[in-house]
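Repro:
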Amino acid sequence: MTEDSRAPSVPLEQYIYNESRYTMLKQSHPETAKHLLEEAQGDVNERWKIYEMWAHMTANRGPETEDPAVQDAAKGCFELMLWVRMRDEEKQL
C-alpha cells in the first residue's frame, strides 16, 4: 500500500457542520452532538494511523525498516485493525 494523500487537514467538526443534518443535530441535541463528534474524530485519527502503518509495510514481510520502534508498532497494527473492525461491527448492532 502506498499513501497517495495527505493526512486530514481540516478537523471533522469544520467539515461536517457544512451539512444541515449535522447542524440540526447540534442545535437540537448539543451534548449528544458533541459526544458523537468526539467519537467520530477519534475514529478518523485511529484510521489515519492504520493507513500510515500500512503504507510503511511491504506485502507479507512486515515493515520495510529495521527500526525497532517501527517493528514494534507493526506488531500491534494487526491487533489494532481487528479492534477497530470489531468496534465498528458493534456500533452497527
